[in-house]
Amino acid sequence: MASLSLQLSSLHHTSTNPLILRSTPLNLRAPTQKPFSIRAQSAPVLSQDDLKKLAADKAVESVKSGMILGLGTGSTAAFVVDKLGQLLSTGELSDIIGIPTSKRTQEQAASLNIPLTTLDKHPHIDLAIDGADEVDPNLDLVKGRGGALLREKMVEAASSSFIVVADDSKLVSGLGGSGLAMPVEVVQFCWKYNLVRLEGLFKDLGCEAKLRLVGDGSEKPYVTDNGNYIVDLYFKNPIKDGFGAGKEISSLEGVVEHGLFLGMATSVIIAGKTGVEIMTK
Predict the structure, then answer these.
(1) Label partner for 243 (CA 20 to 30 A): which of 66, 84, 102, 107?
(2) 261 has a pLDDT exceeding 80
(3) 232 pLDDT band (50/70/90 cuts)?
(4) From CA 115, how far away is CA 99, in angstroms rounded?
(5) What kind of architecture, by CATH, is found in domain 48-275?
(6) pTM for the full model?
(7) Lateral strand order in the sheet of 141-142
(8) Catalytic residue among 92, 107, 134, 152
(9) What is the pLDDT confidence band of residue 111, given thresholds at 50, 70 and 90?
């Protein structure tokens, strides 16, 4: 697709130089993928929150009145929900119904007077917008560091379109390549048994498995909205075969869901300090 250029005045930063918006179709037939590149002539200095808001605002441009929307979870998705609430309050959007992917997203949306529903009542979703923890060149994702991977995957799998919003720190050449957590939701019963098995699946990748704790020095396990635990996998080397890895993880009894979101994103909006890039399939 041709390059597009626009002035992003909504950031409230003072600059006379435009950022660059580039929409790039993804060639899935190519044997190898080129690294992401984000280019611009010049741009104002933006914080990570600025970048997240930039991507979120661009994604919301795809929302139309009357849509059923999947509402994601996490810091970037929270900007999406805020923007939707703003547009509903001004009348720029109407008749939007949201399906939240977590209790905290449900609470945020309700506080903004966004009407909510469930998959039981609306099993077909027009559009889901959510963040990601990792994005590879094939638009495959790692998600779930916010603990909502099961509900996120259910909602996004039921959506006709799934737009991912992220800042450029989330780009990786291969899933697991950030060295940060790839979550697996497991039942509480004999969780350690599954932790050991999960670590063993990927020992050739230098994988270390850890039970997710509440944090703040607490030794109390983190419990998901579904009453389960999360085992976080940390890889020294990227996953070679995402689909194969997902299949192996899912085959273990007691595993509820994993954070590999493969072949699900229809587009990814990446905001960087030099502009915005839209990757599409």
Answers:
(1) 102
(2) yes
(3) very high
(4) 9
(5) 3-Layer(aba) Sandwich (3.40)
(6) 0.83
(7) 134-135, 141-142, 260-261
(8) 152
(9) very high
C-beta of residue 278 within 8 angstroms of C-beta of residue 21 = yes
The CA–CA distances, whole Å, from 216 to 29, 213, 220, 221 equal 46, 9, 10, 12
How do beta strands 208-211 and 141-142 pair? unpaired
Write out pLDDT tens, residues 20-79. Answer: 455 555 544 444 454 544 454 454 678 889 899 999 999 999 999 999 999 999 999 999
Q: Find the farthest-apart pair of alpha carbons in the chain and give their distance in angstroms, rounded.
A: 59
Tokens representing residue 34 in the block: 């080129």
**CA dist 90 to 43, 86, 162, 178, 262, Å?**
30, 6, 25, 40, 36
Please tell me the distance from the alpha carbon of residue 246 to that of residue 135, in angstroms, as a whole number.
16
Look up residue 69 and give its two tokens: 């929307």
Active site residue 253: no
